[in-house]
Amino acid sequence: MQKNRLTFLFVVLDLITASIAWGTFYYLRKTYIEQEEFQSNPTFFIGIIVVPLIWLAVFFMQGTYHDVRRLYRLKVLGLTFFGSLIGTFVLFFGLLLDDEITGYQIYYQSLIILFLLYFVLVTTVRLFITNWIVAQIHQRKSGFKTLLVGGSEKAVSIYNEIQQLEKGIGNDFIGFVNLNGIDKLLENELPYLGHADNIEEIMQECNAEEVIIALESTEHERLSSIISRLDTKSNVSIKILSDMYDILSGSVKMTNIYGALLMEVNTDTMPIWQKLTKRFLDILLSLQAIIVLLPVYIVIGILVKISSKGPVLFLQDRVGVNGKTFKIIKFRTMYLDSEKNGPQLSSENDPRITPIGRFLRKVRLDEIPQFFNVLFGEMSLVGPRPERQFYIDKISAIEPQFRQLTKVRPGITSWGQVKFGYAENVEQMLQRMKFDLLYLKNRSLALDFKIMLYTVRIVFKGTGK
Q1: Tell me: the pLDDT tens digits for 388-411?
Q2: 205, 142 in Cβ contact below 8 A?
Q3: pLDDT at position 245, please?
Q4: 378 by DSSP, 3-state: which?
Q5: What's the number of CA atoms in the CB half-sphere (13 Å) around residue 275?
Q6: Which of 53, 191, 310, 342 is most exposed, with the fewest beta carbons within 10 Å of its own?
C-alpha cells in the first residue's frame, strides 16, 4: 500500500478509536465513578468530535505519522504509551480538573481509566496494522525503493546478503550507480543507472526512498562527499556499511534483527515536536519583534536614507531550505553599486560600507528586517546563515558538506555568526561553516535559546564582527 494511503488509514483509525475511547470513558465516569445516570447530552457529542482531534495533535507532534511504513512493534508501543500519557494529562487539566467532585479519588480513577482505555484500544488497532505492514515487508511484497551506490565486489556482497535473507527487510532495489566508471559487477542483477557524479538527478528520476552506500565507513573522504550530496534530500534514508569501530562506539542503529549490518546516517537530531514548536516560536517572536521595533525601523530607515543615496532596504537572492532561492531583506549598509564588479565579501575596513552601516553591522541592527523573512517562512530565528549561490558553489567545491546546511531554514542568527561573525573570504566562510555544521548535528530548542541569548549580548555590547 502507498505511503499516503497508509498514513490516511492510520489517522482515520486513530480518530475512530479516540472517539470510542472517549465515549466509553464518559459513560463509565458517569455510571461507575460518579454513580449517576448516563445522558447523551450535547457535551457528550462535542467531546466525541473534539477530543480525538486533541489526540491527533499529540501524535502528530510526536512524529507518529511521518512515515508509518517504517513503524515496528516496539516503536508503536513506545509512541502510543507516551502519546497516551501526554494526551491523558492534557485532557485531564483541560477538561476534567474543574469538574465538581465528591473526593480526589475520582480524579485518580478518571486518569487511570482514560489512560488505559485509550492506550489499550489504540495499541490493539495499531499493532494489527503494523503486523500487516511488517508481514508485507518480510514477504517482499512491499518495500522502499532502494538505490545501491557502488559496483564493486563490496556492492555485490551486500546486495547478495540482503537478497538471501530469510525475511525481507524492506529493500526493493531499483538499480545501482558506480563510483569509478569501471566496476559494474552488479549489471547481471540490477539495472545500471549511471555514475555517482550524477546521483542527484538519478535520485530524482527514480524517486529513491533509501540509499545504501557500499563503501567501508573508514573511506571517510569518499563517504563524506557522497553523503553530503544525498543528505540534502530530507526524506531519503541513507545507510552505510559499519565496521568494528562503529559497532564498539555505539554508532550502529539497529531496527530489524533480520537486517544486514548497516548503519543509518541521520544528521537531523531535532524531534518533530521541537520543529513544530520552533516554527511556532519563530512566528510568535517575529510578530512581537516587528511590533516592538517599529519605532526603531523608522529611525534606522531615516538614518540610512540621509546617509547616502539609494533605497533604505537591501534585497538580495539567497539560497534557503532545500536549495530554494528567496530575497533576503536587510537595511542597506553599503553605498550604491558596491558590487558592480561582481560578488564580493565585506571586510572590517571595507570602504563600501557607509558610516551608519558600520554601526548597524556592529550591533546587528541591519538584520532586523529579516523578521519579515521569518514570517514568510523563508527563514528562522536561528539557523545557518543563508549564502548566495555563487559562494555556495565555491565552498562546496572545497568542502561538499557545506550543502548540508540547506537542509534547514537559514537563520537571522547562527552559531557560526555568534562564534565567528561575518566572513571576509572563502577561507573564513569555511571556518564559520564548522560551527554551523556543529549546530546542524545538535539542533535543539535549548541550543536555539542559547544562541539567541548570545546574539542579544552581542547587540547590547556592540561587539559584532
Answers
A1: 888 888 888 888 778 788 888 999
A2: no
A3: 43
A4: coil
A5: 14
A6: 342
Q: Can you tell me the distance from the alpha carbon of 402 to that of 231, in angstroms, rounded to the nearest whole number?
A: 11
> At what angle are helices 3-28 and 42-62 packed, to 10 degrees?
140
**Is the distance from CB of 230 to CB of 137 less than 8 angstroms?**
no
What per-residue confidence (pLDDT) applies to 285?
93
Among 85, 109, 138, the domain boundary falls at 138
What cell was used for 418?
555568534
What residues are paired with 380 via a beta bridge?
411
* Reported confidence tier of residue 464, pLDDT bands at 50, 70, 90: low
Confidence of residue 217 (pLDDT cuts 50, 70, 90): low
What are the φ and ψ backbone dihedral angles of 266, each rounded to 5 degrees? -135, 105
In three-state form (DSSP H/G/I as H, E/B as E, the rest C), the secondary structure along 342-361 is CCCCCCCCCCCECHHHHHHH
Number of alpha carbons in the 13 Å side-chain half-sphere of residue 194: 11
- Partnered with residue 291 across adjacent β-strands are none
Domain encompassing residue 15 = 3-138
CATH of the domain at 246: 3.40.50.720
Q: Are 217 and 242 a contacting pair, CB within 8 Å? A: yes
Q: List the single range of 63-67, 90-94, 256-260, 319-323 with lowest mean pLDDT.
A: 256-260
Q: Residue 186 burial by CB count (10 A; 0-12/13-18/19+): exposed, middle or buried?
A: buried
pLDDT at 439 over 60: yes
More confident residue, 352 or 38: 352
Distance in Å from the first CA to the final CA of the chain: 54
What is the Cα–Cα distance from 310 to 329, expressed in whole angstroms?
15
Which set of grid coordinates corresponds to residue 447? 541550543
Chain-centroid distance, C-alpha 115? 30
How far is 441 from 422, CA to CA, in rounded Å? 22
What's the whole-model pTM score?
0.70
Tell whether 307 and 429 lie within a shared domain.
yes
Report the candidate in 7, 5, 6, 9 with the shortest Cα–Cα distance to residue 17.
9
Q: Interior CA angle at 262 toward 147 and 243, to 5°?
A: 125
> What distance in Å separates the CA atoms of residue 106 and residue 460, rounded to the nearest whole number?
53
Residue with cell 459513560: 27
Name the nearest CA neighbour of 362 among 354, 373, 351.
354
| 235 and 284 together in one domain | no
